[in-house]
Each structure stands twice: as C-alpha cells, then as structure tokens.
Amino acid sequence: MGINRINPPELHQTPGYHHITVVEAGRTAYLAGQCPLNKEGEVVEGGLEAQIDAVVANAMTALAAVDAKPSDVVRSVIYVVSHEQETLAGVWARLTESGLAEAFTTASTLLGVAQLGYRGQLVELDLTAALP
C-alpha cells in the first residue's frame, strides 16, 4: 500500500499538512469523531489543552484497535468551539506537537464551530486511515 502526499506548487504553502493525499490500494478505516471523553463517558476536566490531550489519546487507541498508526491517517478534520483564529492555531500547534503529529501531515481541515455534541466539549477529531 502506498500513501502519497502532494502539495502542487501552484497552491499556497501549508503549515504542515498536504493539499492532496492519494492512497494507492488497501482497506480504509473511518474513525468516529474522537471526543475528549474519559472511559466513563464524561468530558475531561482541565480546559481546552486537557481536552486536546484526551482526544489525542482516544484517537491513538482507536487507531491501534485497527493496527494503524498516525502515519496511516489520510484525512483529518478538527472541530474547535471557537471563532478566534488564535485559539484555532493553538489547537493546531498542540496537535502537531503531540504523539499523533504525523496524522496532520496529510489532507487536513480545521474548523471553528458554535457547538459540539457534549456539554462543555471544546474539540473533536475526525480521522480516516489507510490500513496496512
């Protein structure tokens, strides 16, 4: 299986992700949006940074369940309850410095939203992975 990440020279430079990700062959796993929930299903306490860390941990667990790693991710969508560019950039920075960092070198979208599914939830991560 080959995964090729492409940035056409005619498009703007990105802060680490690629405009296009091509998977040559294989199976694909579509992860449900990973929320900042603990095992009891409660939103973790500690604010946005703690929620980002929980989302990363949950995503790593979900990827491992299908024998995938961050480098197998071919698409990510990040939802953040904020309209502030500085907050969105901070979420991107924390994610790209985490153990899941390789997942964000692929086709990625970062969105500021009004609300997510759980009361107090500030971030959610949607991943698609090409399975080895």
From TrEMBL:
<dbReference type="InterPro" id="IPR006175">
    <property type="entry name" value="YjgF/YER057c/UK114"/>
</dbReference>
<dbReference type="InterPro" id="IPR035959">
    <property type="entry name" value="RutC-like_sf"/>
</dbReference>
<protein>
    <submittedName>
        <fullName>Enamine deaminase RidA, house cleaning of reactive enamine intermediates, YjgF/YER057c/UK114 family</fullName>
    </submittedName>
</protein>
<dbReference type="Pfam" id="PF01042">
    <property type="entry name" value="Ribonuc_L-PSP"/>
</dbReference>
